[in-house]
Design a protein that fits this description.
Layout lengths: L6 H13 L2 E2 H14 L13 H4 L1 H17 L7 E5 L5 H11 L6 E5 L3 H10 L4 E3 L11 E6 L8 E6 L2 E8 L10 E9 L4 H4 L7 E4 L1 H17 L1 E10 L9 E4 L2 E3 L9 E3 L2 E2 H10 L3 E7 H8 L1 H11 L4 H12 L8 E7 L12
Parallel strand pairs: 2-3, 2-5, 3-4, 5-10, 10-14
Antiparallel strand pairs: 1-7, 6-7, 6-9, 7-8, 10-16, 11-12, 11-13, 15-16
Helix pairs in contact: 4-5, 8-9, 11-12
């Protein structure tokens, strides 16, 4: 006898039964909205661990990088620190502490829709201002923005190459007797590929991911920086497109899971196309630095020196600190797959860490 379906599974099933298959983008949006609104997914007791939770060095170095950029750009007192998808607030807490050592104490604003995570964030940063969208960020000062593992969780369209045409990849419910299981397949409606360079050469079965939500948010954020001044640092796992491939994945209990089983109970992500989101910033008139590997970025910011400092101050933690440094920077860990990109207002100094 099968288990009772989740409320989200029931809602998605009703949508499919009433209107036919739903797009992968719709399925991903509904799943992650439910997932993030109902839990704290981070840490050993959650489903995954992000770089700020691995070591304080990550947030500290980013904070110093932004503070250095601010100082070399005129030290404007009206600048804001803004973070998109700030998790528990760990990165911001470490970054703001490091910034304060340079006498830079910016007002802090988070774009966060999860009420559960907002509560955790306020416990670390009591004076934070929360917003539901980039458009709600303050408009009366330069923005210093960090988005770490934010764009990967935004929904993407998936197009499937079938013989001589592209079709939207859609989600169906294959068996009413398994109410928590869904299935992705090529839909029946022909669609046009928005990437001509790929459209002509892709083989049958190829999947093209179109991050409509990500590019819309990237353009809005870039336009705000273009109007107000400042810079943004984007860190995520991804690639420089265009490219084909199905990168949709689910993580649950620190293990890969089936993205189409028990929607809303796993973290769904795709790899970020840095070329595509970078093009949004170029369109807004910003200067683009990178992407560079996270390992190279952190080493240029001084993670090796910082690790030595921490180990000298706490010899009993030396092995733990060194393990964290390797995890953040090594080629076979996060150092290459994860990438960093900076967007910079034309009148602002380039952030450190992006020398090739």
């Amino acid at each position: 006898m099968s288990a009772e379906p989740s409320s989200l599974s029931e809602r998605l099933a009703r949508q499919i039964d009433a209107g036919g298959p739903i797009s992968v983008a719709h399925y991903m949006a509904e799943s992650n909205q439910h997932y993030y609104s109902t839990r704290d997914p981070l840490g050993a007791d959650g489903d995954f661990t992000t770089a700020p939770e691995i070591s304080q060095m990550f947030g500290e170095l980013i904070g110093l990088c932004l503070a250095d950029t601010w100082m070399r750009s005129g030290s404007r007192p009206d600048a804001f620190y803004a973070e998109l998808g700030p998790g528990r607030g760990t990165l911001a807490s470490d970054a703001l502490r490091a910034m304060s050592s340079t006498d830079f104490v910016p007002r802090t604003h988070f774009v966060e829709t999860s009420l559960a995570l907002r509560e955790r964030q306020r416990a670390l940063i009591p004076n934070v201002f929360h917003h539901d969208s980039v458009g709600a960020l303050p408009a009366d000062g330069p923005l210093l923005v960090i988005a770490n593992e934010f764009f990967d969780a935004l929904p993407v369209r998936q197009l499937v190459r079938t013989e001589m045409e592209w079709r939207e990849r859609v989600v169906i419910r294959p068996d009413p007797a398994e109410p928590d299981r869904f299935l992705a397949m090529a839909g029946y409606r022909r669609v046009e590929s928005p990437v001509p360079a790929i459209a002509a050469d892709a083989s049958e079965g190829a999947i093209l991911e179109i991050p409509l939500a990500g590019t819309a948010i990237a353009l809005e954020l870039a336009q705000r920086i273009a109007r107000q001044g400042g810079a943004a640092i984007i860190i995520d796992y991804g690639y420089e497109g265009p490219a084909v491939g199905d990168t949709l994945q689910a993580v649950r209990n620190h293990q890969f899971a089936d993205p189409f089983l028990q929607p809303g109970e796993s973290d769904l992500t795709t790899h970020v196309d840095f070329t595509m989101i970078g093009n949004m910033a170029r369109q807004a008139g910003l200067r683009i630095l990178g992407p560079v590997g996270q390992g190279a970025f952190l080493r240029q910011l001084g993670i090796d020196h910082r690790a030595e400092q921490l180990a000298r101050g706490a010899p009993a933690r030396a092995e733990e600190i060194e393990t964290a440094r390797h995890r953040l920077t090594d080629h076979d860990a996060m150092g290459t797959l994860f990438k960093a990109m900076a967007w910079v207002h034309p009148d602002w100094a380039d952030p450190a860490g992006f020398n090739s």
